[in-house]
Amino acid sequence: MHRDQTGWLPQAQRHLLSALHGRLLAACFGAGVDSTAMLVLLHLAGLRPHVISFADLAAEKPETMVHLDRMNAVLAAWGAADHDMPEVDARLDRL
After folding, report:
1. Which of 12, 63, 64, 72 could share a disulfide with 87, CB 3.0–4.6 Å?
2. Residue 83's domain spans which residues?
């Protein structure tokens, strides 16, 4: 577990786990810096989203789609032990 000098992360993690208990945790991934950091921080805090959405309007830059594939590989690696980390779902046929 990651922990800073003040013990903030464990306290915040306990608070978040308590607040989210029994609730669906959905993350909206935009493939930018902020939403990528959000997924990393959720992982570091031990929080697993039930679903991660991405709105592909068929106009994304190729670099964005490469980043999406890379993030799905990272998510798969994080959930490899328990097969419990969802992938970012960008399929248009699911709309």
Report:
1. 72
2. 24-94
Decide if 2 contacts 9 (C-beta within 8 A).
yes
Q: For residue 55, is it within any domain?
A: yes
Phi, psi for 59 (deg, rounded to 5): -130, 15
pLDDT of residue 31: 93
58/20 Cα distance (integer angstroms): 33
Using CA atoms, how far apart are residues 1 and 49, in angstroms rounded to an integer?
18
Contacts of 10 (CB under 8 A, 6+ apart): 1, 3
Q: Is residue 67 part of a domain?
A: yes
Structural domain tally of the chain? 1
Q: Is 59 within a domain?
A: yes
pTM summary value: 0.73
